[in-house]
Amino acid sequence: MDASSDPDTGSREVGHYEAYDEEREAARPFLPLSTPSEAALRLSPSALLEIVDTKLNELADQQYHASRRMCALKRLRNNAARINRIPPEVLAEAFLFGAAGWFGVGGWTTHETPLVISHVCAYWRALALDTPRLWTSIPLIRRELAELFLVRSKDRRVACWTDRLPVPSTPSRARELQRLLPVQRLQGLHVSLEDEGDMVQFLQALRSPAPYIQDLNLVTGHDSMQTNRWTLGFEKPATTPLFASSTPNLQTLTLKNFDLDLTSGTFKNLVKLELLEQWFVQPVGVFLDALERCPCLEHLAYQRTREAVFIDGEPYPEHLPAHLRHVKLWKLRTLALECQPSAWLAFVLGSLDISQYACVRLSAFNEGDEADLSLNMLPGDLSRIVALSSIRSLHIDYEDRFKLFTRPDYSRYWQTPMGSLTLLQSFRSPVSLAYRDTFIKLNVRDLEELIIEGPRSSYSWVSPDWPLCFRQTINLGHLHLIDVDPTVAAKILSALFMSSPACGGGITTGTQLSKLELTRLHYSGNLERELANCMRRSAVTGGPLKTVKLVNMHWPFNQLPAWLWNIGPEIIERER
Questions:
Q1: 371: helix, coil or strand?
Q2: 316 in a domain, yes or no?
Q3: Structural domains in the chain (count)
Q4: Rg, the chain, Cα only
Q5: Which of 145, 201, 356, 445 gives 20 to 30 Å between its CA and that of 428?
Q6: DSSP string, 495-538
Q7: Quick one: which of 241, 169, 174, 248 has its CA closest to 211?
Q8: Using CA atoms, how far apart are residues 196 and 218, in angstroms rounded to an integer?
Q9: Position 185 in a domain
Q10: Does residue 175 belong to any structural domain of this protein?
Q11: Does residue 197 lie in a domain region?
Q12: Among positive and negative, which fits the CA dihedral 125, 127, 132, 136?
């Protein structure tokens, strides 16, 4: 009988013949290379073949049953292992603890977590494969990984992330990307690509709406986006459905080196909007229109590239509206408008009505050929921006840039400033107008602490009217000078505790100043004289100065002149 016709063994025999390799089998040391004993029976070839096939089938059956027996023994050994003697509820708790950082869309951790968890033990593997939520953060870095996570996440909402395209550059790349992107159940998308061409192809793959997406983060390489921006059409990304009304649930949007058309419908329900490293300035009307469509906005950051700031350097070309707007953002917690033209920034700030708890971070540049820096970016009315209108502590730093830091409570200096302002201009530009504007445009009547830091050299200073500045700070109680040029420090001290006949001979500056602190100031004879005169004026006029604290001062022979100890206020000398 032909062995291949046997219904029970035919398929197995075909498998044996297909798998047989003469050279491989001959190389095995445990296979006999001599003629088998059946050949001595002097059987016909057909009978011999039938006997050989029967024995091969018997051996295959024995091998099959042996492997089944080995699996049963291994399972018995696994059941006796320590991890499998742990109660199931404890194993489940440990599983949840190990997966805690991964559960939920938008974790943006490494993709190894669910893979590792699924290989700890059979119990955990069953749990992992039966938990679609564990596989909802899909790595698009490799096609096979993405496909695995897509299958195991089943019909759950997913978040996708990648820093490179998972398919090679071929004519079918867009189609392959569309297959890997579950747009209809996409809840989050983080894409960071160095090449702008890759980003264009990625966006082209997003053809259908994403009705459930909540978190969108697109980042392109810094250097690549400055070239061919216009030819690639990055100034009009609204052609992609992700930037249209088909994303009604979008809550957080972060774009870096990626210019966006703000007239699209993306901003309806936004909680967080970050436009970083932008090359172009949005028209002020378009920008405010977009903010009006964001009543739930809590975090807003709009930052231009520094290259654009210093390449442009011209007055803001747009004709600003004649009247300010009134845009309410009462849920706003952080506002960052950086590297913006001063005229544009002043109009936007004057139009915003924000939460009293909002932290404000501003940086601007003075357009044109202004010889002296000023605070033109501040509107006339700052009452609706509490971080710049209710100030208890003010820190002015002019080491490399002119910077302001404001706090509502000077006793909590360690806290993050509620407001900060930086002027972007050529190094060591004159700043007398900036200092004057600080005390005129900001509401400093309630100021209790003033810190002035730097610069150590006075060549860029055009001295502001310090008496005018200090007359605005009627409640100033603590003045701290850090690393200030001694010539500038002497002028500041000379403006304190000045008297005026119009006030009956009483002091007009430093009326509440009880503590004066000087840190790391270099010695000059003029500085020593003005410090002594300042202390005398306070003592003669009955001023409030009680303490003069000197920290790491550079006195001649490293010793404070003895005659300063006898003037009146207590002197505290420290090194730190």
A1: coil
A2: no
A3: 1
A4: 38
A5: 445
A6: TTT-B-GGGTT-B-S-TT--EEEEESPBP-HHHHHHHHHHHHHH
A7: 248
A8: 11
A9: no
A10: no
A11: no
A12: negative
